[in-house]
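Hey team,

Filing this mostly as a record. A colleague (T.K.) asked me to run one chain through the structure pipeline before their review meeting, and I want the input and output archived in the tracker in case anyone asks later how it was produced. No errors, nothing strange. Just documentation.

Input sequence:
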Amino acid sequence: MTNKIKKKILIVSNYIHFWQTAEFYEVLKHKFDCKIIIPKNSKFILDHIDDEVVISSPFKHLMYLQLLFIHKSYYKAFIVDGPEYPDYPSSIKGWVIYLHQLLMFLIISLFFKDKIVTFVREISRYFPNLAKKGKIFIFIRNKILFLSKNFLCENRSLTKIFKNNIKSKLLDKVKVSTLYTRTSRSNMDNSYKKDKNKKLFVLGILGAIDKNRKDYSLLLKFLKKNYVNVKIIFLGKSYGNSSKEIINKFNQIDKDILMYKEQTYISEANFLKLGKECDLLVSLNIINETNLSYGKYKGSGSFGDAILLNKHLICPSSSDSQKEFMSFSSYYNNYLEFENILLELIEKKTNPDFTNFSSHKVFSIIEKELSI
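Output structure:
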């Protein structure tokens, strides 16, 4: 018996989420012969993927036009970055980006038609009724987006909200499924055991070192109040002086508390290496008027990071309102809950469950729901 020839698909990223093309590849390669196309100057982000898989495009701003010459060879094209930046144009640069993204997406939608599968990140950027400002710009984006009929969201809760906001006349034509930003790997250890001889406990702080999006006061207060032998690893890039301000606050508590203090870029390999050193992951995302969409209309990358690293996660309760990730997460609403959870987890072993987040299981659901 001869092996069945796999259908060819193209994974496309032309904006900022180049790292996620690797996860698309990890999931979709179970059934398809996959190629990834990204701008040439971003190829280094995918150094851990075979060169024969990655197409390096020299046309950074016009890469989508290159697709017009190769699209006939592919069964589907998975668009990693939908046309959702910025929310609405408020500057000359914003106008250029807004119009460029919509025009490029419009062109490939007309040529690829039903071949396109678009990944939707922030739902409120596609539905005027969910937006507070710029509704006319979001209305135009909505009309162009639904020229295609196949979509992915990054968790089941967002998938449900996306479906609920689709106009009834389109519901029978549109297919929506879920692709988590990361999937679990069978070769990663998904538990840590409290070693009585181990005096050091390592916390991994997820996300870029950004005081405008992270509430570091929670962890700083915990460290000042509780005498625990803890080390900190920042699992995200730094932003110069703004990040140094945060780093200095931790150094004031203990000059040796931080491991791997600053990195302007963290490769996939280095992220995995640093992540394996952590006993526990912590998300300090601020949920306020500025970042209200987290957990409501867009997902938090913290869950994907925890899935990839197979580590237990502490996170704000509001970032997972449906508790979709409760099999490996502990949730807090205030400092007291944060403190109690962290003290408890430092003292006992945890065995998070990632069964529902394996690449095979995620693909089987996508295959069924998108009929691919």
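Quick notes for T.K.: The CA atoms of residues 42 and 268 lie 13 Å apart. The chain is about 35% helix and 15% strand.
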